[in-house]
Automatic annotation (TrEMBL):
SUPFAM superfamilies on file: S-adenosyl-L-methionine-dependent methyltransferases (SSF53335)
Gene Ontology terms: cellular component: endoplasmic reticulum membrane; Golgi apparatus; late endosome membrane; plasma membrane
Coiled coil regions, renumbered to chain: none
Protein keywords: Membrane, Transmembrane, Transmembrane helix
Segments crossing the lipid bilayer: 17-36
InterPro entries tied to this protein: EGF_Rcpt_Signaling_Reg (IPR053202), FkbM_mtfrase (IPR006342), SAM-dependent_MTases_sf (IPR029063)
Domain Methyltransferase FkbM: 125-286
Entries under PANTHER family matching the protein: PROTEIN STAR (PTHR34009)
One GO process term, biological-process aspect: endoplasmic reticulum to Golgi vesicle-mediated transport
Taxonomic path: Eukaryota, Metazoa, Spiralia, Lophotrochozoa, Mollusca
Listed name of the protein: Methyltransferase FkbM domain-containing protein
């Protein structure tokens, strides 16, 4: 018998086995977290440069102290420099690159009305990530249009930039006043909304959304169009979760030409959609149809064409 060998307790062996299993579990957990936060599954919110965003907002705040108008040259230059991003030349970075129509029927309806027009210009306000339920990606990919994508949420805007859209990107909300503003915005992914009065707070509560408010820059549509040197638009997709009529009322129709609109009306009452229709008709637009959406796309839009 070898007396130099020390016998081991089965209990100690089980403890070591349990310890190794625990270490393996912890290691796997950290690996999973690293993967989910890494580029494999997309950009995390931490990828946003908050210092740079704060600097841009501070520059805007200084300009607002001077009470600038919507066509002030200093404002237009600030928008161009700090809040406008030029079209991307790199290949698309889409989850579903083989799709042609990403919308809920808006793209097809507008394409028909405009007789399959090539090389037009669009605006999509409420662009979200540039792919999910996009009303304009079809025109960019198939009809070779240029365009303007407007998204106020700075974190979602990083996702939008990562898609490599062939469009001008603007990180702001659309103001309902001619003057620029800094407004509070309740984040909600594709259902984010400005947070300026009790109506907005009631809407957020009714939609059972979390309160997650940040400050965002807001410019009038006309200021943005001056900044990108484009006042002729073939198609304007307006989907900003309940503030559509106010934005429409802010557009100087005597200074810009917009051929067609789709305007979301799902988040308003019936009288709200009637108000939109009445306003558009008074400004020379024919109400063509309402797009009802479907089981997977609940958004409902009213379609208008310049008479």
């Amino acid at each position: 018998m070898n007396y130099n060998r020390v016998s081991r307790s089965p209990f100690l062996g089980r403890r070591r086995c349990t310890y190794l299993i625990f270490l393996s579990f912890v290691g796997s957990l950290f690996l999973m977290i690293w993967i989910l936060k890494g580029p494999i599954w997309g950009m995390s919110e931490e990828a946003m440069d908050m210092d740079m965003y704060s600097q841009k907002m501070n520059s805007l705040k200084k300009l607002l102290q001077d009470g600038v108008t919507e066509d002030d040259p200093n404002l237009i230059q600030l928008i161009r420099t700090d809040f406008v991003f030029l079209p991307e030349i790199k290949p698309y970075n889409l989850k579903n690159p083989s799709l042609l129509d990403y919308s809920c029927g808006q793209s097809g309806a507008i394409d028909t009305i405009l007789n399959q027009k090539e090389k037009g210009f669009y605006i999509e306000a409420g662009a979200y990530d540039g792919e999910s339920i996009s009303n304009t990606l079809f025109f960019e990919k198939v009809r070779k249009w240029n365009g303007l994508l407007i998204e106020p949420d700075p974190f979602v805007f990083e996702r939008l930039k990562a898609k490599n859209r062939k469009a001008i990107l603007v990180n702001s909300c659309l103001n309902i006043k001619p003057q620029p503003s800094i407004l509070e915005f309740n984040r909600g992914n594709e259902m984010g909304r400005v947070w300026v009065d009790q109506e907005d707070k009631i809407w957020v509560k009714d939609m059972k959304m979390k309160v997650n408010v940040i400050e965002v820059p807001c410019f009038s549509l006309y200021s943005i169009l001056l900044a990108v040197n484009q006042t002729t638009i073939d198609y304007f997709s307006l989907d900003i979760e309940g503030r559509e009529l106010s934005v429409l009322q802010s557009i100087p129709f005597d200074k810009v030409h917009i051929d067609t609109f789709t305007v979301e009306y799902l988040n308003g009452e019936d009288n709200y959609s009637r108000e939109i229709k009445s306003f558009m008709e008074k400004n020379g637009y024919q109400h063509v149809t309402n797009l009802p959406g479907n089981k997977t796309c609940t958004a409902r839009d009213a379609l208008f064409k310049k008479e």
